[in-house]
Design brief:
With 212 residues, this protein is α+β, with helices and mostly antiparallel strands. It has five helices and ten strands; from the N terminus they run αββββαββαααββββ. A hairpin with a 5-residue loop joins β9 and β10.
């Protein structure tokens, strides 16, 4: 296959300043509603980019689990690689790749750890097996094989049999406070529409159009 020969036109629609909400969170909610209505796969999946203590970047897909004026929420093990990297450098980037709609959204800002009280309602709403895996998995650590992990899950299953599963103290949420948000709408002949919101010192937002 010749990768350089693979291309298509982006014809799903345009984006103008008049179409944008003055608040990027409200604009994101509008686009998310449209993504949900279109029934694209995994609309809440986002690429989380962090850097480690040597300055090397790393990315992985996580799921958006909450959104408010405070920011974008995801959950993880606090001993994971992503959590260690956020501890070193709190500034992260999120990317929502809505390819089926010829859209993407990029969010940049600091990630702040949520309290146990803030994280607990979501933990207890998860399927029981997912709660057990949260206890069993030492996320990002080496594993001898799947059998080792499955055995640990069964061990915790027995330990918590007939009882509610408590939330581990090493598990919880982060909220990413947006400081920059970019909305990208693909256009024909690579004439894409890009708008970037930047948070001001008074928490208002400036909006500028970017060249494609």
């Amino acid at each position: 296959m010749r990768y350089e020969d693979f291309r298509r036109e982006y014809l799903a629609g345009g984006l103008s300043r008049e179409m944008l909400n003055d608040c990027p969170v409200r604009q994101f909610e509008q686009w998310m509603e449209q993504a949900l209505e279109s029934q694209i796969e995994d609309p809440t999946a986002m690429v989380l980019a962090t850097v480690d203590d040597s300055g090397a970047p790393w990315q992985r897909i996580v799921l958006l689990k909450g959104l408010s004026s405070a920011g974008f929420v995801f959950y993880t093990n606090f001993a994971s690689a992503k959590a260690h990297q956020i501890g070193f450098e709190s500034r992260v980037s999120l990317l929502f790749p809505w390819n089926a709609l010829d859209r993407q959204v990029i969010v940049a800002g600091p990630a702040q750890k949520m309290t146990a009280a803030e994280s607990a309602p979501y933990f207890h709403s998860r399927p029981r097996d997912s709660q057990l895996v949260a206890w069993a998995s030492h996320q990002s650590q080496p594993l001898s094989g799947r059998a080792e992990l499955e055995a640990k899950v069964e061990s915790f299953r027995g330990q918590f049999a007939g009882a509610d599963i408590p939330m581990p103290d090493f598990w919880g949420g982060y909220v990413v406070r947006p400081e920059r948000v970019e909305f990208w709408q693909g256009g024909a002949h690579r004439l894409h529409d890009r708008y970037r919101y930047t948070r001001q010192s008074d928490d208002s937002w400036s909006i500028e159009q970017l060249q494609p």
